[in-house]
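Following up on my earlier thread - several people asked me to post the actual chain instead of describing it. Fair enough. Here it is, all 206 residues.
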Amino acid sequence: MDLAMWMFDEETRQVRYAGANNPLVIVRKDFVEGEVEEDDRIKIQEFVSETNGETYHIIQIAGNKQPIAIYPEMVPFEEVCLTLKTGDTLYTFSDGFQDQFGFESGKKFMSKHLREVLLEIHQKPMAEQKEILNKIYEDWRGPADHQTDDVVNIGKFYFTASSFNSTAILRIYFRILDINFSTCICLYIKAIATITVKLGRSSLKK
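Reply from S.P.:
Thanks for posting it. Predicted structure:
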């Protein structure tokens, strides 16, 4: 089972994330060199939007490469903390969208393609983003029986230090759902369940 889990602290504006294979992606407009350091798990890419010509950065934090299950080389999951900025948009997703084979092309959608799509739509209302992603996915997939895997996408927009809202499940299987979350999110991908949890010190490496 794969998992992505993150919690937001309204006082410090920090998001704490840990994941099993699934990432946390942040789209940021006013990126300042050095405010986030790259390492073996954190990658930063600069993109120029085709929609408005403005420059954005995508910060992708990879999960640990192990499942939530019995695994030959299990190690403690590592936590990553980042400070959010006004205007950041956060996304968590399973591998179903990017691994979907195109009905006509026979090729995977790919994670880079998905990040580019999220960049172009991230400033739109979450309800509109849901519709856009739904159409893109179904046009790429073709008939429903051609679906490769289960698909879960979650998006969240950060306005100010006291307002962390506009959450939406962007896609879950063939249904689009609206759900209100607390700022602590645990996403069980294969079970298609979204639950609120508390980060446990025993399960995360500080």
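The longest helix spans residues 126-141. That should answer part of your original question.
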